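[agent] plan:
  1. take the single chain provided in the ticket
  2. run structure prediction with default settings
  3. attach structure tokens to the ticket
  4. add a short note for the reviewer (M.T.)
[agent] executing step 1
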Amino acid sequence: MLVLATLAACPSKATLGRHLAQRLVQIGVNDVFSVPGDFNLNLVGCCNERNAGYARSRGVGACVVTFTVGGLSVLNVIAGVYSDNLPVICIVGGPNSNGYGTNRVLRHTIGLPDFSQELCCFQTVTCFQAVVNNLVDAQELIDTAISTALKESKPVYVSVSCNLSAIPHHTFSREPILFSISPR
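[agent] step 2 finished; step 3 output follows
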């Protein structure tokens, strides 16, 4: 997809969003499926989260969904690709990084002030889970998630706090290590 390739090729601002786009392009992801929402990126719109299963024909896939509402909806697809041994990067537009530890109930949750509800659901159907709520370790978490998905040929869960994707950070200026493991 042109938008993903353009984001990846524009190094002028070393942001989390650009790093993630670059890494997805490097592993052969051309399309990222998303369902419109207020906590996700604007990429390839879909009518529902089931479109993420296209990894079966492409070798690797990616989807972007909203926190909890979209995450719980795509959970069935992720469980399916887990049983089929397909690498899918499931990216969730997580809560604002300033919201962690506030004991607030967000409207995209199941009514509890615990932001780990969704993460707990994904633990049994993904081989790695990353919650990116600060920029310091974001690059390492994202790269570990993607390389684990490729190595294990299983889906991974990556929650990115919604306020972080466009913020520049020096860690994203470094040349990332190339992935050497291809999907099975």
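[agent] step 4 note for reviewer: Confidence is low (pLDDT under 50) at residues 1-11, 39-45.
[agent] ticket updated
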